[in-house]
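Re: weekly structure request thread

Next one in the queue (98 aa):
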Amino acid sequence: MNKLLVITVLVALLALSAESFRMPRQAEEEEGTLSKITDVVKSYYDGAVDTVSGYVDSIKGLKLEEKAKNLYTDTTTVVSTYAGIMQDQLYHIFYKEQ
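Done, posted below.
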């Protein structure tokens, strides 16, 4: 009987100590509706930013700024020339008759 009691106590102690070594399970976090919506919005935003960055890079590759500056310079030159011609014509029309 003494041996049975000793074995029972040892098994009980072993069971108690084994339970203390058990790793606690980590609860899986359930994703709520708000976090799902936030993730979707973030993914759309990231996609939009990537698309716009691609467009900006392709536009920079075309050197549109330089072309726009050249177009502006040429246009102002032509307009100022014709504006000068028109000013001279108006001057001669108004002051020739006097």
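The chain has a mean pLDDT of 79. The CA atoms of residues 2 and 8 lie 10 Å apart.
Next request, please.
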